[in-house]
Amino acid sequence: MAGDKNKVIKAYMDEDDDKYVYIISKEDIILDRVRATLFWESEDDEKWAFNIFSKNFHELDIKYLIKKTENKKEEELIRKWIKLMEESNL
């Protein structure tokens, strides 16, 4: 499973059922989409990543996002989004 195992959540399908799924963190989903954006030059992946990022900005672990970037381009894109969110006061 991708992402930090400590950030994975167990989500039950129904409160009366024993069925569940494991879900990686929003931060790890964002990082995955950022990597797809840069590797595939995918505008759709960038839109999805920024959508998740912007809608959850105040709850995200920004230090974790920066720490887990794998290269300079990933970090630059995340920092660009942080600046955009801070400047727009969203």
Would you mind describing this structure in some detail?
- A hairpin with a 7-residue loop joins strand 1 and strand 2.
- The chain has helices at residues 26-40, 43-55, 62-67, 72-88; strands at residues 9-12, 20-23.
- The chain has one domain.
- Helix 1 packs antiparallel against helix 2 and helix 1 crosses helix 4 (72-88).
- The chain contains 4 helices and 2 strands.
- The mean pLDDT is 95.
- It is globular.
- By secondary structure, it is mostly helical.
- A two-stranded antiparallel sheet has the order 1-2.
User: Strand percentage, roughly?
Assistant: 5-15%
Give the mean pLDDT: 95
Number of helices, where a helix is a run of at least 4 consecutive DSSP H or I residues: 4
What is the assembly state of the chains in this entry? single chain
Task: Break the fold down into its secondary structure elements and pairings.
Blueprint: E1 9-12, E2 20-23, H1 26-40, H2 43-55, H3 62-67, H4 72-88
Antiparallel strand pairs: 1-2
Helix pairs in contact: 1-2, 1-4
Summarize the structure.
With 90 residues, the protein is mostly helical. It is 57% helix and 9% strand.
Question: Which key phrases capture this entry?
Answer:
57% helix, single chain, 90 residues, 4 helices, 9% strand, two-stranded antiparallel ribbon, 2 strands, mainly alpha
